[in-house]
Amino acid sequence: MDVVEDLSPLLPESAFLRTRQLLHAWGGISLSDSKRSMVGNRLKKRLRCLGLSDFDDYLDLVEQDEPERQNFINALTTNLTAFFREEHHFAVLADYLREQPGGKTINIWCAAASTGEEPYSIAMTAVEALGERAARRIRIVASDLDTGVLAHAETGVYGIDRIERLSRDRLRRFFFRGTGKYEGKVKVKPELRAMISFRQINLLGAQWPVPQHVDVLFCRNVMIYFNKETQAKILERFVPLLAPTSLLIAGHSESYSHVSHLFRPVGRTIYRLVNPRGRQ
């Protein structure tokens, strides 16, 4: 009998506490008590893959082995996304892009790219707003902590169920429909993919390989995984990257009221600097 099959998905309290400490230390992510069952189920899959029967043995391995550490982070990172999620943000983005001077390069950072739906939605919005000029003027950096979702995003391949919300015009304009073994899938067209640079970035890491100035920063539905103190530290680091006219876009359930000395709301979950110390 495979002893791993008898593992309860509910971690022992000590293993859950250790998991929380490790995930917070490496990714800054805070797990609530309610996540214990979810964590147990996800880590159980890693134990099965490795032939382990004890959560503590697995956590020992995670602390010693860098590749498995990344698998650990990937397993516990929740990735819920969709094309044009929170659609009002993309309407604001389109207006912003049209208002920018004609020769200006526009840098956009998508700081929680997940499987790519958000950065590709940004790129589609740019093309719709600027036409052929978008490819020359728009630079998008799409980052995530999870290497697994980034690998998916880079392929630009999605099941038909992922594109149900897209109009026929967008599907024709921006995607190839799969045939043969790719039946039931679509792929982002190369000209759209070329607008995006995918990178692994830990928001708590010492280095952020992004442009020195950012015109639009999408940081949606990621701050909810950090406590208020960690959120404030990250938001403070955003300040030097942003200009007075730059936009910082948050998720629908996120509020930056605790850093009102840094950012002021200018729309629904859309912010600008209060006292710009970034580029002029």
UniProtKB/TrEMBL annotation:
GO terms for molecular function: protein-glutamate O-methyltransferase activity. Its EC number is 2.1.1.80. It catalyses: L-glutamyl-[protein] + S-adenosyl-L-methionine = [protein]-L-glutamate 5-O-methyl ester + S-adenosyl-L-homocysteine. InterPro entries: Bact_Chemotaxis_MeTrfase, Chemotaxis_MeTrfase_CheR, CheR_C, CheR_MeTrfase, CheR_N, CheR_N_sf, SAM-dependent_MTases_sf. PROSITE patterns: CHER (PS50123). The keyword S-adenosyl-L-methionine applies. Residues 4-276 form the CheR-type methyltransferase domain. One of its GO terms (biological process) is methylation. S-adenosyl-L-methionine binds at residues 79, 81, 85, 118, 144, 202-203, 220-221. Keywords: Methyltransferase, S-adenosyl-L-methionine, Transferase. It is an enzyme of class 2 (transferase). The keyword Transferase applies. It comes from the Bacteria. Methylation of the membrane-bound methyl-accepting chemotaxis proteins (MCP) to form gamma-glutamyl methyl ester residues in MCP. This is Chemotaxis protein methyltransferase.
